[in-house]
Design brief:
The protein has 388 residues and is an alpha+beta fold. Helices cover 36% and strands 28% of the residues. The protein has eleven helices and 20 strands. Strands 6-5-14-15-16-13-17-20 form an eight-stranded mixed β-sheet. Strands 8-2-1-12-19-18 form a six-stranded mixed β-sheet, covered by helices on one side. A three-stranded antiparallel β-sheet has the order 3-7-4. Strand 5 and strand 6 form a beta hairpin. Helix 1 packs across helix 6. The two termini are 32 Å apart. The protein binds flavin-adenine dinucleotide and 3,4-dihydroxybenzoic acid. The site of flavin-adenine dinucleotide has 31 residues, from helix 1 and helix 8.
């Protein structure tokens, strides 16, 4: 097989890149080791920045998003006895949209599934430091296949094979594992709030999000070593009611249809480019989920890389490809800082000094327009800088 861009991974980053390239007449092939059903059902992020939404709409993926997505103009920050709204729209003129990553992936697969080889195994990249890189894999029927390309893109997430293809001696990583994780549940119950609630509590952080007017998404800070088997539905609802509780407000409960625990880490790996291999999304960086940056950062990488590949294939320009890593990393570090900051402000560490500092910071963010604006402009997302 021969293509212009060979992409490893049919998550949001790989599929979006393939879609945006096709709109510009650039050919791509995507390989994915899971099944289409699995990829479409994986529950993850839920909040889209304004620029993410604008990009999806502009590329023809706005039908379901604009019909079913929920525009949110703010969030609530809470600590015992107090709940305050941060008004994004008043502070920045921008908003975010609640629309599940699963739905984004379904929308992308509706237009790009033909370009994807699902359920492959043994994916490997070859000769990425030459101008004839190759991707090899074993297809669903067990036949060995090779894709020759001009460029290969690693969009295969944190555990993929693309990042390790960069020689170890050239790689630099910055990493922090947090001592806690998020227990996430999806529940068939109308949300008990109009906008997301991020709650600091002595028992640990809790958050109330949603997926639709009938589906709530909720999170609890738990110890990193906790096992989901030890959290019955009743125990989860009790903890959520305590941590999110406020006089005059009631948490509605209902059947939990999905639950799981996600560890939390900050991670950045460079280089994001090695020869003709480019890394996008979780393959190069991970943020803790507080602040909902992971998916949006993957989309921002793709926006930058699309412009650079377009300039390369249509005008034979290499300057934007050469600038990809620097441009992408600037946003990666900003989002890494914001996600770390939100995480540090809201999660219990067990240290009493930390607790007082967190409460002081929360009161400041909720009372100073300058501090609230800083949170708001990071949350809604700084504008994409694609180099064009
Ligand atoms: P991925 O979505 O990981 O996609 C990578 C794809 O590559 C996958 O389909 C994988 O199957 C495939 N793949 C891997 N290895 C290979 C291989 N060798 N060959 C072929 N294919 C391969 N972000 C938020 O903002 N909010 C959240 O609440 C949130 N929750 C999360 C919960 C979990 C459990 C995880 C893991 C992440 C969460 N994130 C969240 C982060 C967000 O989902 C990611 O940032 C986003 O999925 C990144 O997209 P991606 O396409 O770069 O990577
Ligand atoms: C969701 C996830 C986040 O990490 C966040 O900060 C807000 C919402 C969600 O899954 O809905």
């Amino acid at each position: 097989m021969r293509t212009q861009v060979a992409i490893v991974g049919a998550g949001p980053a790989g599929l979006l890149l393939s879609h945006l390239l096709s709109l510009r007449g650039v050919d791509s092939v995507v390989v994915e080791n899971r099944s289409r059903e699995y990829v479409e059902a994986r529950i993850r992020a839920g909040v889209l920045e304004q620029d993410t939404v604008d990009l999806l709409v502009k590329s023809g993926l706005g039908d379901r998003l604009t019909a079913a997505g929920l525009r949110h103009d703010g969030i609530h920050l809470q600590w015992p006895g107090e709940r305050h709204r941060i008004d994004f729209h008043a502070l920045t003129g921008r908003s975010v949209w609640v629309y599940g990553q699963t739905e984004v992936v379904k929308d992308l697969l509706a237009v790009r599934a033909d370009a994807v080889h699902f359920e492959v195994s043994g994916t490997a990249l070859h000769d990425v430091d030459t101008d004839r890189p190759r991707l090899s894999f074993v297809d669903r029927e067990g036949a060995p296949r090779v894709v020759e390309a001009d460029v290969v893109v690693g969009a295969d997430g944190f555990h993929g094979i693309s990042r390790p293809t960069v020689p170890h001696a050239l790689r630099h990583t910055w990493e922090r594992d947090y001592p806690y994780g998020w227990l996430g549940v999806l529940a068939e119950v109308p949300p008990s709030t109009d906008e997301l609630i991020y709650a600091w509590h002595p028992d640990g952080f809790a958050m109330h999000s949603m997926r639709s007017p009938r589906l709530s998404r909720l999170y609890l800070q738990v110890d990193r070593a906790e096992r989901i088997e030890d959290w019955s539905d009743d125990r989860i609802w009790d903890a959520l009611a305590t941590r999110l509780g406020l006089d005059g407000w009631t948490l509605r409960t209902g059947p939990i249809v999905d639950k799981g625990i996600t560890p939390m880490r900050s991670f950045v790996s460079t280089p994001m480019r090695h020869g003709r291999l480019f890394l996008v999304g979780d393959a190069a960086h991970i943020v803790p989920p507080t602040g909902a940056k992971g998916l949006n950062l993957a989309v921002a990488d793709v926006a930058v890389l699309t412009e650079a590949l377009d300039a390369f294939f249509t005008e034979r320009r290499t300057d934007l490809l050469d600038g990809y890593e620097e441009r992408a990393l600037r946003r990666v570090w900003r989002s890494t800082h914001f996600s770390w900051w939100m995480t540090s402000m809201l999660h219990r560490s067990g240290d009493e000094l930390d607790a007082q500092l967190q409460l002081a910071q929360l009161r400041y963010v909720c009372s100073s327009t300058a501090a609230a604006t800083s949170l708001a402009e990071n949350y809604v997302g700084l504008p994409h800088d694609t180099g064009r």
